[in-house]
Amino acid sequence: MTAHDPDCEKCEELLQGYLDRDLTHKEVVIAEGHLDRCDYCRRRYRFEEHLRRYIRISASERMPAGLLAKLSELRGPTADGF
Amino acid sequence: MSESGAAEPEAEAGRRIASEARERVRFEEEALELADQVYRVARRMVGTREEAEELVQDTYARAFRSWRSFTPGTNMRAWLLRILTNLNTDRGRKLQRTPDLQPLEESDYYLANKLAAAEGEQVLDQERVVERLSQGGVVDALAALPHDFRDVVVLVDLGEFSYADAAQILDVPIGTVMSRLHRGRRILKQKLAEESLT
C-alpha cells in the first residue's frame, strides 16, 4: 500500500507497456522484480489485465446474420459458376 | 523463345487468365473469412450497427475491386482495416471536431484506485471487481471517446493489432499511436469510473 513509493511510480509507468509486451528486457526485469515484491502493484496489475479482457469481451459484437451473404454478392464475376 | 506458332501465346494467355481467376477467388475467400473480425472493429468505430454494416460492405466492394493491390503473404486484416478507416474518414467524419478535452492528468491506476477506495483495497484481489462495470457501460464509454483516440484503442485493445499495424492502418507515426493509446485508455478509465461510481 505504498502508492507514492518511487518504485511503485516506476512500476505504474511501465505497466501498460508490460501488458502490451512492448518493454525492453531491462524494463521487464524492473517491472517483474517490483511486482514480485509489491502487493499494491500486483493487485493493480491483475486488475488492469482483467479490465482489458473485460473491455474486449464487452465491446465485441458479432457480425449480424446476413452480412456475410451480402459481402459474398460483392465478389467478382470470376467467382460465380458454382 | 520457341517458334510453335500463334497457338502458344494464346494458350499462355488462357493459362494466365485461369491462374489469375484462381488467385482472385483465393483472395476473396480469405477476405470473407475475416469478415466477422473486420465487423467487430468497425462496429466500435461508428455509432450504429447499420453504419457498421454499410461501412463493411463498402470496404469489401472496394477490396474486391482492387484486390491486385494486396500483396499476398502480408496482413490482409490490416489491409482491409486500412481501406475501412479511409472510407470512414471519407464519409465526412473528418468534419467532426475533436471536442476540447478536459484536463486529464489522472494516473493509469485511476479506475483501480477509485474502485479500491470505494470497495476496499482487498477487493482488487478478486477479479470479479471488474465485472461491476456494466458491459453496456464499457460500450458507451468507448463511444464517448474522441474518435482519434477511439480508433487507436479499438484497433489495439479490441482488434489486437500491434502498434506498428495500427500506425499503418491509420497512416500516422507509431509514436502517435502510442500517445493516443495511452491517453485514450486513461480517458476510458475516467469515464468508466464516473459511470460506475456515481
Order of helices and strands of chain B: HHHHHHHHH
Average pLDDT metric of chain A: 88
- Mind telling me the CATH class of the largest domain in chain B? Mainly Alpha
Proportion of residues in β-strands of chain B:
under 5%
Order of helices and strands of chain A: HHHH
Radius of gyration of chain A: 22 Å
Oligomeric assembly:
heterodimer
Distance, first to last CA of chain A: 66 Å
Summarize this, please?
Chain A is mainly α.
Structure overview:
The complex is a heterodimer of chains A (82) and B (198). With 82 residues, chain A is mostly helical. Chain A has a domain at 6-61. Chain A is built from four helices and no strands. Chain A has helices spanning 6-19, 25-37, 39-59, 67-72. Chain A is elongated. The termini of chain A are far apart. With 198 residues, chain B is mostly helical. Chain B has two domains: 7-95, RNA polymerase sigma factor, region 2, helix turn helix motif (Rna Polymerase Sigma Factor, Chain: A); 110-197, Arc Repressor Mutant, subunit A (Orthogonal Bundle), CATH 1.10.10.10. Chain B contains nine helices and no strands. Chain B has helices at 7-33, 35-45, 49-65, 76-90, 110-119, 135-143, 147-158, 163-170, 174-197. In chain B, helix 2 (35-45) packs parallel to helix 4. Classes of the chains: A mainly alpha (82), B mainly alpha (198). The interface between A and B is large, with 37 and 49 residues.
Layout of secondary structure:
The complex is a heterodimer of chains A (82) and B (198).
Chain A: H1 6-19, H2 25-37, H3 39-59, H4 67-72
Chain B: H1 7-33, H2 35-45, H3 49-65, H4 76-90, H5 110-119, H6 135-143, H7 147-158, H8 163-170, H9 174-197
Helix pairs in contact in B: 2-3, 2-4, 2-7, 3-4, 4-8, 5-9, 6-9, 7-9, 8-9
Key words describing this protein structure:
heterodimer, A: about 80 residues, mainly alpha, 4 helices, about 0% strand, B: about 200 residues, Rna Polymerase Sigma Factor, Chain: A, Arc Repressor Mutant, subunit A, 2 domains, elongated
